[in-house]
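Practice record 12: protein with 3,4-dihydroxybenzoic acid.
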Amino acid sequence: MATIVGAVTTSHIPAIGNAMANGLQHEPYWAPFFDGYERAREWLATARPDVAVVIYNDHGLNFFLDNLPTFAVGAAPEYSVEDEGWGLPTFPPYRGIPELSWHVIETLVEQDFDVATCQEMRVDHAFVNPMRLLWPDRTPPPVATLPIHINTVQHPLPKTSRCLAFGRAIGQALESFDDELRVLIVGTGGLSHQLDGQRAGFINKEFDEMCMAKIIDDPGALTALSIHDIVKLGGTQGTEIIMWLAARGALGDRVDKIHGSYHIPVSNTAAGLLVLENRAQPALWY
Ligand code: DHB
Ligand code: FE
């Protein structure tokens, strides 16, 4: 059976890719941000994942407003890398694992999550930057990848409770895969930020710290928040916290916090990182 070793939840700000491309990691602006990832990489060396399941929100690259699934699961042999804005060199494609993808899709549909299935899928900064932070010397990384998208671009977005349940269903699907794979969950997005409108630049440290604490020990408490509560408290793009909720849902009911860091600002965003090791196997809800 596959084992979920833990989760890394992290911001995915496009400027991270630019900083890496230009070697700015040790500059005073960037050092406090990049330093946090050393501990994550140390943990990864002991966790030894074979596969990274990356729960992220596409930003208009693979899906656009004319055709935007709420939940979509990659089922491609490889995922090509494209991004917006910075003119960065593109990377070779990320390796997929279609047999695991189809098992996850079948289990999700069985559990009433009628996901879109993507036998072709392009990935953006929300997938690529976290992977490059975790494996800075290896692009593509030494793991197979399985991208899972949750819509945060066009309302209505899925409810917080639905995202936590989606994560639980993903966890159940992975743990019922009949192979000795070690699986890392990566949840990307947030924390508080707003990129447009009158509140552009909005950040809410108190809200972010509350979310980071609850994600670890009491993720169910965050399902009391509606999407509109999150917009109000965490900004329009702060809704990306639902990726963290889904990632946490894939773990058992008990986790160990290996590392957490929080830094304001990176670009327009409060940057957060959590490294959680999975403890309970299997979780009580199965
Ligand atoms: C920024 C953050 C994001 O999550 C994103 O998708 C795009 C831009 C930013 O802070 O600049
Ligand atoms: Fe984003």
